Amino acid sequence: MKNENTYLVEIKGLVQGVGFRPFIYRIARDYDLCGNVENRNDGVAVRINCNESVLNQFISSVRKLSPPASYIESITYKVLDYEDFCEFKIVKSKNVSDSITDVSPDIAVCNDCLSDMKIQKNRINYPFINCTNCGPRFTIINNLPYDRDKTTMKDFIMCPDCQKEYSDIEDRRFHAQPIACDVCGPEYTLCYGNKNIHGTDDIVNHMADLIDKGKIISVKGLGGFFIACDAKNENAVLRLRRIKNREAKPFAVMFSSIEKVKEYAYVNKYEEDSLMSFRRPIVLLKKKKEPAASVTVGFNTLGVMLPYMPFHYLLFEKLKTSVIVLTSGNISDEPIIIDEKKDFEKLSVISDIILTYNRDIHNRTDDSIVNVINNQERIIRRSRGYVPSPFIVNMNVEGILGTGAELVNCFAIGKDNKAILSQHIGDLKNIETYEFYCETIERFKKLFNFNPTVIARDLHPQYLSSKYAEETNLQQIKVQHHHAHIASCMAEHKINEKVIGVSFDGTGYGDDNNIWGGEFFVCDFKSYKRVNHFDYIAMPGGDKVTEEPWRIAVSYLYKAFGKKFLEFDLAFMKNINPESVDFLCHAIDKKINSPLTSSSGRLFDAISALTNICTYSKFHAEAPMRLEAIIDKKIKTSYPFNVKNTILFEETIEQIVKDLKNNVSPSEISTKFHNTVISVICELADDLRDKHNINKVVLSGGTFQNKYLLKNVEILLQNKNFEVFSHCKIPTNDAGIALGQMAVASAILK
Ligand code: ZN
Ligand code: FE
Question: Could you tell me if 330 and 342 lie in one domain?
């Protein structure tokens, strides 16, 4: 044929397990092309006969129309020897099972399926409807390649109707592994007193009624159980707080629609994109109106998500309320419950009624949490909808296991140039969570055919993730915590050169045995120089200070004023036993259980206590979060500070005390304090650029979850023509550490 070549088009990225081959088939058919498509180790390969202009149209259609959960990293093509094809075929994959590492995350039910749910005979209101473009994935997979018999759908034998759709390449459900209908698929049961209610319509009607009456219900979701109640019913929400023993941490809510979200929260275009994305995370929005007061407990933000399972849509059709609380079904720091039989008693304690279904959850996932800062989605908790999408890094990380940190742990495994981060694991100090950690590492080894040869771990000798590393008997590379933070952000942005690293967080083990967390580095992957840091301050009571921020406030006062501060008559001191304060000063003098820290998190704690916003913290990071919540953006002033060999805040504290004596509002003090920290970063960055001739600034660490801080630091540094890098797709908190550990290990091994 004239002008026709045989082209080989290679598409790399996340293109497996997301319906990519049938998608290519349909595009090829639309263009009337002959050839074939097959899975390869690192993507898919397409052979087509056409001329160059059709080729370009074909490629642009592939880019434009690709399935929602796919991610195209690159499309390249070359001319092959001419081959005569008479049709377009999906050909059997050549020996790819070994290194396919791509598993799709779970995908929210798509609009096509929602309409099918109203018209397809065997799927009317069927709550497990799914297709090639949507439905459960990671949570049901136990092995690769992704086939139905390697998922928890294997016990459900397809009926002839489903089988027909599954085998028909023209069908929307071609090779949709979890395909199901009301004849052959999973079903819900509502366990209510001694009764078990079956049948979706009955269940939905009952449940809607129970929620509207103020009951609390455990609901089996995609990755675990969630606890639901009417978010407008103050009594129900209060009762949920009591039985979950959760006094002060805001609850996330699910709204029936984006329109309803907008009644209660301010939503910009980027936030709307995140809310509507197939990943369906919880998005932290600025609150406009309160559902029930106990949902947000005084915070000015609202954690919001939209329905993502067919059942959620069915429920909202019947509910009177347009918003429900939906919080993880767990007890305090334990992992989210996934099996109602195993944990029946726990679920019975935290709810009145249990809604379950008869398909197992294999991989546990929590709801993911994001916020939008400077028009970019920033992930805070990475789990459902995001995991296990790999990250492509510009280095070889094969065989490296990054064991992560401790408090908000997440580990990472390396395959070739891909880092696969685990779902949010949680606080390893909790024994059940540690078991979940060990179990998930084993599952990742099996699922991704991963054999660790090197362990990258935190320097902290007591972290359970470090102890895990010790027990493997493999080569260990110890990575300093704050270096790992910066390396994580560098890996995310594929930077491999010397940078100015600003690593701010609550705590991390330093190589002088002190606790770090307000660090300025000049570093690359291999090594770092700690060029400046917050001046050390004693933490009287050690770890206790994180729960009792007043202790660190006293420590800062003592450092700035000596015992004179005892005469200041500060409001926050009125609730504290004077003897405890005396004892604290004594402990600092005698260095009794008073480790030194340069942590920025502790400075935020201190100011939160000083202003009497939070003297006792009821959940992790409550003090800085409450301090941020009262910011008044109109205030542009700040406090003085001093930069010598270290960064000193004595003058800052003196001025804050003066403001307190003059009855300046906590809101104004908080804002001026935030502005001060922003100035510290900008001033140091200027200074380090001059000294080291480096223009790239990398911001990482949990403190940068603070929206006001990150937003303004980014803008101000960009105005000074810095190239600024902060986290988007990897958490800036300790859940991002594992990637940094891995990157450092890779550089050292090279
Ligand atoms: Zn669908
Ligand atoms: Fe950290």
Answer: yes
Q: Model pTM greater than 0.90?
A: yes
Q: How far, in Å, from the CA of 668 to the mean position of ligand 2?
A: 28
pLDDT digits (tens, 9 = 90+) for 215-270: 999 999 999 999 999 999 999 999 999 999 998 999 999 999 999 999 999 999 99
**How far away, in angstroms, is 505 Cα from ligand 2 center?**
5
List the beta bridge partners of residue 529. 522
Any catalytic annotation for residue 21?
yes
pLDDT tens digits, one per residue of 609-663: 999 999 999 999 999 999 999 999 999 999 999 999 999 999 999 999 999 999 9
Rg from Cα positions in the chain = 27
Number of the ligand closest to the Cα of 404: 2
Domain shared by 235 and 149, yes or no: no
Note whether 217 and 260 are same-domain residues. yes
Residue 485 CA to ligand 2 center (angstroms) comes to 7
Domain boundary among 39, 57, 90: 90
Using alpha carbons only, what angle is made at residue 707 by residues 702 and 497, rounded to the nearest 5 degrees?
55
Cis preceding linkage at 145, omega within 30: yes
530 C-alpha vs ligand 1 centroid, how far in Å? 51
Q: Which DSSP category does 747 fall into? A: H
Structural domain for 72, as ranges: 5-90
Residues measured by CB to lie within 5 Å of ligand 2, the ion: 505, 508, 734
Tell me if 208 sits within 8 A of 214, measured CB to CB.
no
Catalytic residue among 39, 49, 133, 712: 39
Domain containing 559 — which CATH number? Answer: 3.30.420.40
Is 39 among the residues known to form the active site?
A: yes
Q: Which one of the ligands is nearest to 134 CA?
A: 1
